[in-house]
Design brief:
Strand order of the largest sheet: 3-2-4-1-5-6-7
Strand content: 15-25%
Order of helices and strands: EHEHEHHEHEHEHEH
Radius of gyration: 16 Å
Largest sheet: 7 strands, parallel
Helix content: 25-40%
């Protein structure tokens, strides 16, 4: 697992916090987090990669390839800003370079798997294919997640990409009926294992607390000690 691509079924579902949890779970490794396109932030504001490093610890290197000020899909944000887009080969080259200096590289996408990165319609899936890297899917807990997650994993299979599994990005402290049922139903709908569930609000923890707790949220495949169920 030298390079792992992290995507989601949509936006604002906990990809960054899941990425941070995986990075924190591998405390004994040199970890790099690569954010190909950061949108919605002005220069100098801390982005997703910096947030992963803040939460996960000093063993994490944060790298951002491009930044666009408007909170839009990368291709749209780049076009409106008059800035060059990020292309799949640039993502792949950056990840491969980081892999020569780190034990694990986490590539966190923007939005969902098929969000456009350039005017040719390139997506994070194209970068994953160039890297021959497995993909981790982050999904919400509640109603509607089964269909969205199944569509994402089906898109991965159609493209010949390996899906490592699914992690629930923000599990409520008091889950409703749908969220409770989805813990059992997600791996069936997705056709891949459920590899963890990160509690809602985990990003607000102090970094030291986050680092101690992260392993309990994730399965051993992601460096954790969480058991099934």
């Amino acid at each position: 697992m030298t390079i792992l691509v992290v995507t989601g079924t949509g936006t604002e579902i906990g990809k960054t916090i899941v990425t941070a949890a995986v990075a924190a779970a591998f405390q004994d490794l040199r970890v790099a987090v690569l954010k190909p396109a950061q949108t919605g932030l002005a220069p100098g504001e801390p982005g997703d990669a910096a947030e992963v490093a803040r939460l996960a610890g000093a063993h994490v290197t944060a790298v951002e390839l491009a930044r666009y000020p408007e909170p839009l899909a990368p291709e749209t944000a780049a076009r409106r800003a008059g800035l060059p887009p990020v292309r799949p080969y640039e993502i792949a080259e950056a990840a491969q370079k980081l892999a020569t200096e780190h034990d694990l590289v986490l590539v966190e996408g923007a939005g969902g798997l098929l969000v456009r990165y350039d005017e040719r319609g390139a997506t994070l899936a194209d970068a994953a294919r160039l890297l021959a890297a497995p993909v981790l899917v982050v999904a919400p807990a509640g109603l509607g997640t089964l269909n969205a997650t199944a569509l994402t994993t089906e898109a991965l299979r159609t493209r010949g990409l390996a899906c490592r599994g699914v992690v629930v990005g923000s599990m409520p402290a008091e889950p409703d009926l749908a969220s409770r049922c989805n813990i059992d139903d997600l791996p069936v709908a997705a056709g891949v294992p459920l590899l963890g569930a990160v509690p809602a609000g985990s990003g607000a923890l102090e970094p030291a607390d986050f680092q101690v707790r992260a392993a309990s949220w994730l399965a051993p495949e992601l460096g954790g000690n969480r058991t099934a169920g």
